[in-house]
């Protein structure tokens, strides 16, 4: 299993960060430009990644003010889990971490690991821009 992580510090309490992340409608704001055909509800989202694949995800697990996990609703090119965790930091703010776990063979890892890391980094950066 390939695990890709990106973390960011946000100057808001955990509950505010979690409330933003738990609604998949908000995740469109976190996506890079190569994501299009976005469609979402609070619990499900589908989108196309330019030159790669169409992906549909749903919230599989919610742990209030702690963790949010999304999994594909249709068979993806490889098994993948998208997780956000939020924990209080020492400054009264929140450390938000985006964790992408993907079951990649060596060939897929060479092709996909870089873009997946860029996606995770982009999403955490956008989260900080939006929430401060």
TrEMBL record:
Against Gene3D superfamilies, the record matches this protein to: 3.30.530.20
- What is the name listed in the Swiss-Prot or TrEMBL entry for this protein? SRPBCC family protein
